[in-house]
Amino acid sequence: MSEKTLAENTAKMKKVFDRPKSLNEEKFSYCPGCHHGIINRLVAEAIDELGIQDTTVGTAPVGCSVFLYKWFDIDVIQPAHGRVSAVATGVKRARPDLTVFAYQGDGDFASIGTNNSTHAANRGENITVFFINNTLYGMTGGEMAPTTLLDQKTTTTPQGRKAKDFGYPIKMSEMLSELDGPTYITRQAVYDVKRIDRAKAAIKKALRFQVEGKGYSLVELLSACPINWGMDPTEANERIRREVEEVYPLGDIIERS
Amino acid sequence: MGEKKLMRGNEAIAESAIRAGCRNYFAYPITPQAELLQWMATHMPEVENGTFLQAESEIGAINMVYGAASTGERTMTSSSSPGISLKQEGISYLAGAELPSVIVNIMRGGPGLGNIQPAQGDYFQATKGGGHGDYRLIVLAPSTVPEAAELTYEAFDLADEYRNPVVVLADGMIGQMMEPVELPDPIDPSEIPNKPWATTGIDGGEAKVIRSFALGAEQLEAINHDLQDKYEVIKREVTRFEEIGTDEPDILLVAFGTVARIVRSARRLGQEEGLNVGIFRPITLWPFPDERLADLSRKVDTVLTVEMNAGQMVEDVRLAVNSDVKTPFYGKQGGVVPTPEGVLEEVKKHV
């Protein structure tokens, strides 16, 4: 093909895939097979599509979530571990014109931050929470989280999690759906194309509800941590489908819009 | 200055904060600062863009401050001793992220649950860093209700100017007492400094980050050096104190807050007996006015520190004064308030 023909063909082509504007040029440094990169991208795409890059503020605390500011081309606040819902509340109450989202892991949202997470939901704060559930503490070294499945081996449950000692996997999304405050609570996964599409739609809807002033949304995302699970990425995806979804079924839990 | 009113300390602090342009207030109920929260609940919604939110916990409140302060808006929380203990992690983050904010502590008796009587047991916590890491807070200690209003108003300017949390450290006595107060006029919003660093959306510009995090050792050390440089500037520019009868004193008394009032009464009693009791009252507890205190200490044999605790500020006094000067301590704890007669009796042991 001559250079001229290539140029002519390129001019006719329609661009169907590009880097979201809400991400910068930095490359993700997540571990192989980790789902954070996919979820980060979906959030960025949703921000682009809603046209809210200029007025969106992300809040992302510790662990693997802490790096959000490195990839996103939006303003980002790094709160203390577990305090994300309170910090997001502060931002939103001070500046209701901004779109504020929280991006936090299961140890953050469902363990040390439960008090703040629950009350922001109960107040129906007009914020959006992305709750990344990978059933353990990832960056810290694979310790048990409240979301760890029964019999799951972690570095702090080397014999497997036993309910007698450590209780049961906590179901935050179902718990919070009992409250009158929240508008939209859903659980999604991103291990295949179909689920990525659904997760994207849920993320976008959750942000759109905030823009429309409809109140609190929570998108729980089941996420793989192949390194700490001792699996390859394919096995990790398969684990979500076979085991994690058994305890944490996918789909919308409430929608009151 | 505005109109004169008879107000409780807690109310005067709250109203003064609103007049200083505070538009975001987050707190949790605790005695003896409850009237502050109640005043805010009534009056914050009356001002434009005023946010009052009763938080789910002290921890929630200080982190709401972190969020609201990130937008550059003037923001405050208040509590009393045990509640301030709960806020310490958040205060360390505020200092690390250099977020202007005002934290009011109406101190009560401790440790633990203690009681709801006035005390000064949180001096160490406020001035030495109650949370983790190397950081400093500007600590202002009013001794009257009017001064509590004045220092609260000023606290917001200092917080903005130095991008640093400021603590107003009063005790239950000042919080509960009623005195005539001349409230400051409400600030003209155009006088509040712009904050180009605030995370209010990129709006076509560069992405901004509010954080207290740096993974690399050299990177975090550089941030720490910047903080220490800032603290040196604050030491030079912000140190405040009051002195009474320090020309030719027979003895020098050092006291802050409520105790400074009691020491004044003791001075008057002493005068009747021909004693000249000099008083040095630090208004900024950090930065501690050590240079002036060192100068004054050369005039006397004894510098007596009086506090409502087991002896906390006295450690800074001992660091500041000449080693050949005696530095005894007289204190009451658990909510017991020293009397002027008791202070004078102690003075007589040393002159």
- Which quaternary structure do these chains form? heterodimer
* CATH topology name of chain A: Rossmann fold
Report the sheet-strand fraction of chain B. Answer: 15-25%
Cα-based radius of gyration of chain B, to the nearest Å: 20 Å
What percent of the residues of chain A sit in helical stretches (DSSP H or I)? Answer: 40-55%
Can I get a quick summary?
Chain A has 257 residues and is an alpha/beta fold.
Structure description:
The complex is a heterodimer of chains A (257) and B (351). In chain A, the strands form 2 sheets. Chain A has a 7-stranded mixed beta sheet with strand order 2-1-3-4-8-7-9, with helices on both faces. Chain A has helices at residues 3-12, 36-50, 68-71, 84-94, 106-112, 114-123, 138-141, 163-166, 172-177, 193-211, 226-229, 233-247; strands at 56-59, 75-77, 99-105, 128-133, 136-137, 143-144, 184-189, 217-222, 251-255. Chain A has 257 residues and is an alpha/beta fold. Helix content of chain A is 42%, strand content 16%. In chain A, strand 1, helix 3 and strand 2 form a beta-alpha-beta unit. In chain A, helix 2 (36-50) packs across helix 10 (193-211) and helix 5 crosses helix 6 (114-123). Chain A has a single domain (28-255), classed as Thiamin diphosphate (ThDP)-binding fold, Pyr/PP domains (Rossmann fold, 3-Layer(aba) Sandwich). Chain A is globular and about 70 Å long. Chain B is α/β, with parallel strands linked by helices and 351 residues long. Chain B folds into 2 domains: 4-202 and 209-238, 3-Layer(aba) Sandwich (Rossmann fold); 243-348, Rossmann fold (3-Layer(aba) Sandwich). Helix content of chain B is 40%, strand content 19%. Chain B has helices at 9-19, 34-43, 58-70, 81-86, 88-96, 123-128, 145-162, 172-176, 217-238, 258-272, 290-297, 313-320, 340-348, and strands spanning 4-8, 24-27, 51-54, 75-79, 101-107, 138-140, 165-171, 178-182, 209-210, 241-244, 251-254, 277-282, 284-286, 303-307, 329-331. In chain B, strands 3-2-4-5-7-6-13 form a 7-stranded mixed beta sheet, with helices on both faces. A 5-stranded mixed beta sheet of chain B has the order 10-12-11-14-15, with helices on both faces. In chain B, helix 3 (58-70) runs parallel beside helix 5. The model of chain B has no long low-confidence stretch (mean pLDDT 97). The chains are: A alpha/beta (257), B alpha/beta (351). Chain A binds chain B through residues 24, 53-57, 59, 66, 69, 72-80, 83, 86-95, 98, 115-116, 118-119, and chain B through 23-24, 26, 51, 53, 55-57, 59-61, 63-71, 73, 75, 89-90, 93, 97, 199-204, 207-213.
